[in-house]
Structure formats: C-alpha cells, structure tokens
Amino acid sequence: MLKIDQLHAHYGLAHVLQGVSLTADAGEVIGLFGRNGVGKTTFFKTIAGWLRPTDGSVTLDGETLTGHSPDAMNRAGVAIVPEDRRIFPGLSVEENLVLGLMGRKGGSSKSHLDTVYDRFPRLAERRKQAGNTLSGGEQQMLAMARVMVAEPRVVLIDEPSEGLAPMIVAEVFAIIREMREAGTIVLLVEQNVHEAISLCDRFMVLERGQAILTGEGDDDDDRKRLLDVLAV
Amino acid sequence: MPDLISYLQFVLAPQMLNGLALGVSVILVALGLTIIFGLLDVINMSHGEFYAVGAFGALALSALGFNYWVLIALVPILMIPIGVLTERFLIRRVYDGGDRHVSTLLLTFGLGMIAEDLLKIVFGPNTHRPENPLPGATEVLGVFIPTYRLFLIAIGAVVIVAVALVVYRTRLGAMVRAAAFDRNMAASLGVRVGWVYSGAFAFGVALAGLAGVLLAPIYSVFPTMGHDFILMAFTVVIVGGMGSIWGAVIAGVLLTQIQAISSLVISPVWADPIVFGVMVLVLMFRPQGIFGRIGHA
Asked: Which residues in chain A have Cβ-Cβ distances shorter than 8 Å to B189?
C-alpha cells in the first residue's frame, strides 16, 4: 500500500503543497484533478524525489521513502511519466528502453525488451531512431513503455493525453488499465476529466496545494461533485 | 609542376602531419574538458593542471623505474581517484548552490593554482625533458617524420575512437548522455546520477593525465605546462560545441591545421590570432559551436 501523509513542499518561500494525504492499494488508479498551478505536478515531483518534502511522509508497503533521491525511489518501485515525457532526444528508442530496464528487479536482459516490443510494435519499428524524431503519440508510448519495462509498484503519470489525438489517448488509457490489471498503483493527473474519471477507482481534487474533495470514480454523486468543483 | 609536387611532399605534408600530431594532442586535452562540461555543466579551469599532474606523475614514476609503456596505462588509472575525490569533495559541494557556473569556475581556477604551486614546490620550477621512448624518424611517402609523433597520432586516434564508442555505443554511455540531458529523469529510471557525475569527472581527469603522459616527450614537463594547451583546448571545445565529443575532434583537427598551414604563408606569430579569430567568429555567428551538446539531439 502507498501511504502519503500530510505532505508539504516549498519552492523557495512559496508553500506549494500544504499537507496532502493519500492512500492507494495495489491495482488502484487514483485521479488527481485541479486547475493548473494547484500543486499536482509538484505532488508528483515530491513523491518521485525530484523535490524534497518539507514535512510529511511517503511510505510504500511499510517502507519509509520520504526524501529519498529519485534513483532510490526507482529502486523502491516508484516510477514517473512526467508531463512533458522527458524522452532523451540524443538516445535511440532502444537506449531509452534499456535505461528503463535499469530499475527492473532481479536483473534485466534484452529479452525483456522483446516483451515491450510485442506490446508496442511501433516502438520496435523505430528502435534505432533518436527519441526526438518520434511523434507526440510515439513519445508518450515510449515514456510509458520505459517505466513499464521495470514493472514498478507505483507509477505517477502526469497529463498523458496532452496534445495527443483521440485515438492515441484511447491507447494511452488502455495501457493504464493494463497497469491496473497488473496490480500497479497508478496516480494519474489528467485535464481530460470526463475521460479520465472512468478509469479512476478514486479521485482527489487539489486547490492551492490542499485536497478539497475526494470521492469514488464509479459513484455518480461523487462524479457530479467533481464536475461541479472543476466547473467542467 | 615538379616544384609543386616537391612543395606538397616536403613542405606542406610534413607541416600538416605536425599539425595533426598537435591536433591529436589538443583533442586529448579537450575531450576531458568537453565531457566534464557536457555532463556536469562545469567549466573546469583546473583541467590544464590535471594534464600537468599526469605529466609530472609519469616523470616521477619513471624515476622510480616504471617503463614508459606501463605509464601510459598506469597514470590515467592513478588519476581516476584524484578526479573522484575532486568531484565528491569540492565540485559537488558548490554544484547545487547559487550560480553554478561562477562558483565552479572560481573553485576549479583556485584548485588549478594550488596544483600548479604544489608542482613547483615538489618538482621545482625548471623544465624537465623526459626521454623520447621512440626516438628517430620514419619515412612516410618519402618524408621523414619523427616516429613518436606518428605513434602519438595513432594512439590518439585509438583513444578518440574508444571514447566515442564508450559514450555512444554502451549502456554506460547512454547513462552519461541521459544524465547530461536530464538528471532527474535519468535518476528516476534508476541511473545513479551521483556515480555517473563522479565517474565522468574522473574520466575527464584521467584523459587529461593520459594527455600529460603522451605529450611529455614532445613538449617537455614544467609546472605551468597546463597553460599552453588549455587555451587551445578551450578554443576547440567552444568551436566544436561545448560538450560535443565529435565537435572537439573536428574542431581540434580543423584549428590545428589552420594553424599549421597558415604558418607556411604568414609569420607563425599570426597563427594563434587566426585560430582565436575563428573562435570569435563562431561565438558571434554560431554560439552553440559546430555540434550540439552531449545527450542533446
């Protein structure tokens, strides 16, 4: 179980996260919604170790991970697919995936890449191409495949549908469903609330660094409240 | 026509070969500099002194009876811990605080001054001339070229290709390029960025040390020897593109050939201003240099 308790984070004097708490069990997808600048991405960066929390704790299956470095978080099983995908432009598709394999427990081999290529044949076709030559959709697939190859316990996915065609968005959401079926905890930040809520077991709305609403993804009343709060 | 052939064979060709030997020497120094800049974003002002430390290290070890050919491997290996300690205990302490460029530049500048003075204290201010391990000349296309310079060109080419293979064809190289582009993302994929930084800095320092060993028999060994090459090495790195390995190689060959050939037609004292003029033009019209930075497309 992932447990985030009263997480606080600052950018200089700006108190961006003001005590956000959340729990998630294996195989749960938790949606994080809210307008731009309310702290969703900062929440992910703090969990992933990119930003040191000023207070609060992060634990995964009882192991305290608070303030760990990004590579230590990776070894603990926490992966991130950031908003802008962060594909390494000077590395080929395969090199991007090979780096993803580094986080895999119990060793890694090229055969693990074959599994990924079976799932993402488009990436197999482009394995020798540089990351920056891929389309936006292909880059998103690569960003997701790059973390999936390590079979993490928790995946933080930030705005995966941004700038993508509807068909690609459907594919991205299908991948998130596969992650859930594999028992992965998925925390999902998504502006496309109508589409994303159907994917979420639970959700949380952030406002000025605080959770102002939580609910169940399949509860009609909670959904209505969510849409009211977000005015969408 | 025979005059032209004689000019090409006996004047231009030897001059270009000498230029190539100098080019390889400069590239060896510039490679470490550009790797350290490309990955750590650190302008290492002490790089010339690491080069001098390598040369003096070879001098001291050869006095202890070590064979020159052993020193080519041994000195770079001994430079690795020096690089790791420098990165861990000095560079890293100022790396994330305030203005990284200014603080690391000043820190490495100070470190270079200390290293230079230590070399003066330990070895004295005078010039040392190590024995040439390959004396004599070899005939190439009817022209006699100093054998050691030919060896230098050959080993330099091997080192350059080896460095390029490590950086562009191995998983370690992929880690380095990834960390150079985006340290957080690389770390979130499991790359131990701290180790990569230490390793890359040490690798750069080891390359400087190797350059020191290889160039000592040609250029002599003295405490301020780092100054001679570091200016040219910085020029090569700027023209080639800060952090670009192929940029350093191409700019190194290009600039030293410009220097060598221009010395034939104008006074050699104007060769350096021409080279630095090229650098100024590059900074004016293509400030990123010929190639992009390591890890970037």
From this structure: 74, 79, 99-100, 102-103, 146-147, 150
Contacts of A180 (CB under 8 A, 6+ apart): A27, A28, A29, A186
> Worst-scoring range by mean pLDDT, A105-119, B83-97, B233-247, B257-271?
A105-119
Residue B297 in any domain: the answer is no
- In a domain? residue B4: no
Q: In which element (H, E) is residue A118 found?
A: helix A110-119
B233 Cβ contact list (under 8 Å, min separation 6):
B26, B29, B30, B33, B47, B48
**Helix, strand or coil, per DSSP, at residue B222:** coil
Residue B230 predicted with pLDDT over 90: no
Digit-coded pLDDT (tens) for B44-78: 999 999 999 999 999 999 999 999 999 999 999 99
Q: Is B277 within the bounds of a domain?
A: yes
pLDDT above 90 (res A106): no
Selecting from A79, A130, A131 the residue whose C-beta is nearest the C-beta of B188 gives A79
Mutate to test the interface with B, among A102, A134, A155, A157 (most CBs of B within 10 A): A102
CB contact under 8 A, A130 and B297: yes
Domains along the sequence of chain A with CATH = 2-230 (3.40.50.300)
Q: Among B185, B197, B245, B291, pick the best mutation site for testing chain A contact (most A Cβ within 10 A).
A: B185
Residue A232's pLDDT band (boundaries 50, 70, 90)? low
Please tell me whether residue A192 adopts helix, strand or coil conformation: coil
Tokens encoding B232: 């040219």
Query: And the tokens for A29?
Result: 């997808």
Above 80 in pLDDT, residue B2? no
Please state the pTM of the whole predicted model: 0.88
3-state secondary structure (DSSP) of residue A117: helix
Query: A213 and A229 in contact (C-beta within 8 Å)?
Result: yes
Q: What is the pLDDT of residues A144-178, one digit of tens each?
A: 999 999 999 999 999 999 889 898 999 999 999 99
First to last CA, chain A: 32
- The range of the structural domain enclosing residue B160 comes to 12-285
For residue B284, what are the contacts with CB-CB under 8 A and spacing of at least 6? none
Confirm if A51 and A2 have CB atoms less than 8 A apart: no
> What pLDDT, on a 0 to 100 scale, did the predictor assign at position B295?
66
Q: For helices B147-169 and B171-181, what crossing angle results, to 10°?
A: 70
Helix (H) / strand (E) containing A185: strand A185-189
Pairwise CB contact (< 8 Å): A49 & B188: yes
